[in-house]
Amino acid sequence: MVVRYYFSLLLLILIGSSCKKINQPGSIDPPVGPPAGSFTFNELKVNDVFSGFSYYSVNQKPIIKLSFSAAIDKNTVAAGIVMKNKGNVTVALDITYENNDKTIILSPISALQPITMYFLDAQTSLKSTDGSKLLSPITINLVTAIDPSDKFPIISDQELLTKVQRQTFKYFWDFGHPASGMARERNTSGNTVTSGGSGFGIMAIITGIDRGFITKAEGLSRIQKIISFLKTADRFHGAFPHWIDGNTGKVIPFSQKDNGGDLVETSLLMQGLLTARQYFSEENEVESTLRSDINALYIAVEWDWYRKDNSNTLYWHWSPNYNWDMNMPIRGWNEALITYVLAASSTTHTISKTVYDNGWANNGAMKNGNTYYGVQLPLGPASGGPLFFSHYSFLGINPIGLTDNYANYETQNKAHALIQYNYAKANPKNYYGYGENCWGLTASDDINGYLAHEPANDNSVISPTAALSSFPYTPEESMKALKFFYYKLGDKLFKEYGFVDAFSLQHQWFADSTLAIDQGPIIVMIENYRSQLLWNLFMSCPEVKTGMKKLGFSSPHL
């Protein structure tokens, strides 16, 4: 009987065990501990808060608590827990313990640097008092807060605008190509000069003369040098290539098949040249010759030929080797309104309103009308696209009071800038630093190369040119951004040629580059905000008045 009893009891135990193994409903497996010879990480707090393994706006002496499943061997902590910055420099730590040595409390001995990324690594070499190793390593990312102090002396708003214009002007003046006078593509471009960026540079030089940064004679001499170079540089049915060798004038391919005429870049160059023609208006031999040379360059552009087989659309590229293989029609809404305006304004190779309506406006398909972040947008893609759409053509074209069959362009450009401002305030991706003082997305250098940043393509990279070139549209919002960029970020952002091209507080990345197409709109659009100088000059061109009226534009400036 006793044997039978124990046999029956053993059978019941085995049956119960087998039921659990097939996971009957309601059964619970017992917790599995760490493998023998190891222990685990249990809890993390930074300044008594847990929010995952990345922390932003951290103070300069944070208190970091790491809790584990076992008491820690203190002799292994110095090598097992290491804090470094992005430059791989080790941070000395003050280390204490609590919870029977299961919790390590760490804090930097010296204050961390502001707006800097640090990494705290707990490695598997960390041991417990019984000799076990940490089962898995952990890494904590810490981004320190912005130092709220002003990095430069406070000056008046007008003085600040002048300072930014003067410093940005140096990109085109001090760094202009020595042989051609043209604007180099970027601060590392060597002999590669840019046609569109040089158009911006010419307008910057005119601003520099008017602001007293240089004399009129100095500015005139530099523009003469540019024009002399352009007269002998490669052209393709009158259109210049995107990139040119500043010594030889020969085309430098922008890509394999983009080795010929670029009609949009040419129009940005012509916008600057026509502005210069209107500025140098004195009746003397030097200025008369300058005007004549500019006219010759402009009338030689075969805008109508770039319709590709006489279609009712302008095309961006043509190559002597690849013909129309790039196959890129110029359709709105983007930065290229100036191309259709100058094509319509040409006295030798003009286009009709039909080409504008069919090609640029795509028979009305460029209209939008939706509301984003509380602002209705007349034209363009969702949320407006990158902000250079509202800058490049409007360095010369005055959008104030400008209308046609498709939009009010003052409304369009203001809406575009305000959508981006409101987007940064809403900060739907929760990027560190975004807000009313830090906004502006456009095409610029990026952490991983180059990117057309916009709300629909946002990876945390802010481009100073976006907000600063929007001064005519959003003066208060742009001034907030300017003061934050200048006073709070200081020399991390404001350098030899003005503001660097882009930055990300999320990733603690600051570009070391400056680009002609981003520096130019800053100085020019700030000037248009202050005096409308470039707008007044360009809009005074008789051909432009005629061409814009032909396309159906109405404006108090026509």
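The record above closes out task 2.4. Task 2.5 opens with a second protein, given below.
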Amino acid sequence: MRQNHLFAPTLREAPADSEAISHELLLRAGFIRQLASGIYTYLPLGWRVLRKLERIVREEMDAAGAQELLMPAMQPAELWQESGRYSVYGPELIRLNDRHDRAFALGPTHEEVITALVRDEIQSYRKLPITLYQIQTKFRDERRPRFGLLRGREFLMKDAYSFDSSWEGLDRIYWRMYEAYATIFARCGLNVRPVEADAGAIGGEGSTHEFMALADIGEDTIASCTHCDYASNLEKAIAGDRDASDDLSSDASTSQPPLPDDEPSNFAAPPSQPPQPEKLHTPDIRTIDQLTAALGIEASELIKTIVALVDGKPVAVLVRGDHEVNEIKVRNYLGGAESFEMADAETIATLTGAPVGFLGPTGLAIPVLVDAAVARMSSGIAGGNERDYHLRNVCPGRDFPLDNVSDFRNVIEHDPCPRCAEGTLDFHRGIEVGHVFKLGTKYSDKLGAKFLNAAGQPQAAIMGCYGIGVSRMMSAACEQHHDDNGLVWPLAIAPYHVHILPVSVKDEAQMQAAEQLYETLTRQGVEVLLDDRDERPGVKFKDADLYGIPMQVVVGKQAGEGIVEFKSREQAVKNTITIEEAIDRIMEKMNSIG
């Protein structure tokens, strides 16, 4: 490609609304342009990167035995009503009606459509297993689109779905996809960490992993062990307790029977109980910080009582003063509840009779969920359910019940690892670029996707779901690969492999050498951008660094002698070498592309 005709308008200053470095650089380098909030046009350079990401994804999906198809973006609302997700997705689901007033939705994902397709076409176990995938534009009406391509209302996604006749078969496909994802991200030059995660609105049973591209701008927090390979999304991460007799290293987010009919837990009141609760006069002291300062204690000595409405029903959750409630764990414990809403002051007063800031666990008439860290306390200080009073010596199991004890909190940094005896948890930020779910029969049951098994009996298909945010990968690569001067693309996904920069297009020797190099490399399958613009050298060099093409060849005053400058974009050093040596170096790097 000759740059004189390239449609890649660059910007010298960062746009005022750019919130992430990837957003800023993709705009400045002319890779994307915004049409509306969260909606972008991919200009030629951006489209080339996107197509290369797609190619790598396709190659690895095909190698894993998946078959590509293409499903409609516009989906009948009846399918979503059948699955029960029409209300779960809420306002993020973009809804519309056709001229006959039939309701549709623009697909944020395609579980319903693919399940209906397989339901109608596969009736025998002999046609299974099968894995189908597509790469398609998805739509979600984000409340606050931000960070450019990282959280948009329209984005490109690869979504794959597997159907099997057994859980063992699903397990094999799941881990095959897991390995394929690891290969995809490695080939794309991304530093990605697989972490255990919650299935969220997609739902499912068993293993769920997210693939997180490590980046400071990431909206997700990853808790990982300093010693072993344990890593989890904060929503699902659990902490070990090396002094506790019980074992919380299992999946503490597993759903339990709904309240209030649970069997008593294994936790009991401590054998040596403290004195009876004692009232503390704490006028206008409502917050944890105020209470610790006034009493000269640590937040870990406090029992915090949080009232929430879970699927509209009130529940009290007890956590230590230095911990925060994890709503996902609460919802999962309560049978996979769909909503979690913190109660306001008026609701708390109506339910408990206590003012905000002085609510405690004693004598509550609503179900009480107790975090395991609270259950292990010999005693603590809690709200007294009376304005301006707290209680000292509140004892778990004596002063409030321990019928529902589990892991209900977010982990904090330096918590013990739940998997090994040596490690502690560190926090990192990450961008979710992929996920794999074991859906089980969640959708096949609801949509009637059944087949006849070997015994001739109808059986629901056992499903898996596997997604990759293709356009999000583009931004994640920018977050991980840039410097002060612009983008630094990994070779496998760069818009071009080589950028040839003649210093002066008016110099015949320079242009002749540049053209010959361009033609030689192009014949050998190298993608080359030739800057044939009549611009100052400084402009050319700034644009070249901004574009981030991995290899640069500067053709200058020594062109007539067959000498050029060669530079890898990721390095500052320029090497003065012959044109033949430059070609050799370029081809050597090209042979390294996976």
